[in-house]
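Write out the bound-state structure for 2'-deoxycytidine-5'-monophosphate.
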Amino acid sequence: MTRAFTEEDEKMGINIALDGPSGAGKSTIARKAAEKLGYIYVDTGAMYRSIAYHAMTNGASLDDAEQIAAQLEGLKVELTYIDGAQAVLVNGENVSDKIRTPEVSMGASKVSAVPAVRDFLLETQREIARKNDIIMDGRDIGTVVLPDAQVKLFLTATAEERADRRFKELQQKGDTSTYEEVLADINQRDYNDTHREIAPLRQAEDAVLIDSTNMTIDEVVAEIVKAAEAVSKKKSELNTERTSRRDRELMPIHAISKSRRINPVRQFFYGILRPIVMLIFKIKYKLTFEGVENIPRDGGNIFASNHRSYADPVLIALPTRVPISYMAKKELFEGNKAFKWLITAFGAFPVERGSGDTSVIDTSIEKLESGRNLVIFPEGTRSKDGKVGKGKTGVALIAAVAQTKVVPVGINFEGEKLTKGKKVVVRFGKPIDPKELGINDTSAASRKKIKKEIMDSITSLVH
Ligand code: DC
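---
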């Protein structure tokens, strides 16, 4: 029932195409299967019916393709849910009940032979299928609309059986059509649907034929659910395989050597500048540092901190003897040249947010290798209320690759802005050593473990 699974399938939702002639029970079955699977049921017949209804109410002749095509101008057909039931809206009007009459059925069979009508609906139908797990019923779903559907079924039953079912359905609704009329109607529609030039009703080569004449609805539904679940299982297996492959192929460990010394000129200027900036900051804020004994004496360490203000890199750098480096958003490097020079001199390097750019990792490793400390704000953005948010795993990846310690930092001040005279406490926690945590690769599990340690520690330093 299902076709061979390809890697393309991983990207798309699960699509079940259910085709067959009128009255084979497609919609009842599709609705039930969709409910069981939690998929969206897309009733394409209702779309054709809506167009027929719209053309009929506007007085268009259903035998005139040009008049029907003209009706499509500005027409909006939507499938939606109202009170849990699927509803069809034509230019906003709920026509769900009005399109179920024998007249509209015949009208739909006629308009569906008009190429402009089929073109009009094709993209809408494909769009729904691209984005969702769906079961779509119709006449040409497996052949034209969704030729790549993972599950294709062709549901049929004898014309007499189908006429009998439809007749009972109509009787329940109070319709006065006779059985003979319903059968003639079904035969006519079968003829129309299979003999039209465009997208005629036809079983796709790779579709499975289900003759429901002697099957219950639930039996057919169970078959469909089984097929969909098999696809879903394959899909998640493929996903897991991909993820673990990706994990194995992750960045190789590149333990930094701690022997490199900072450029002496840079170190000299840093030595002069540090007490001056410290003095300025101490005058401006009521600044205290806690846990300075946790700061390693050497360089090449990561400082992972919560993010409160633009002054954070400086607040972290002040009690460290080794110059720092830190990531700053790319935009800061694009404006004023002097500003760019200044932040670069103070160790900033640009990152493009959300670009997934791996060169940032390489630059970070280079900075650590050069003997600098690297300041990272794992939350990515500044926290206005002081609460520590969720961290990203980038910091853990860099720590795992570089196999270097991460010093957690908590920056504390009240309110949103760091204003003059404010009490600021910068706390340094015990360094987290990837080696001590037994991290010797960059797999997702390893990154998660380091990240958790870091974020827990930062959170404990913010109070
Ligand atoms: O499934 P239904 O009876 O609601 O469909 C109404 C008409 O629309 C039917 O006569 C054939 C046509 N149709 C079609 O041509 N292609 C589809 N995918 C769905 C329906």
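---
The chain has two domains: 7-246, 264-461.
The pocket of 2'-deoxycytidine-5'-monophosphate is lined by residues 22, 44-46, 48-49, 105, 108-109, 112, 138-141, 189, 193 (CB under 6 Å).
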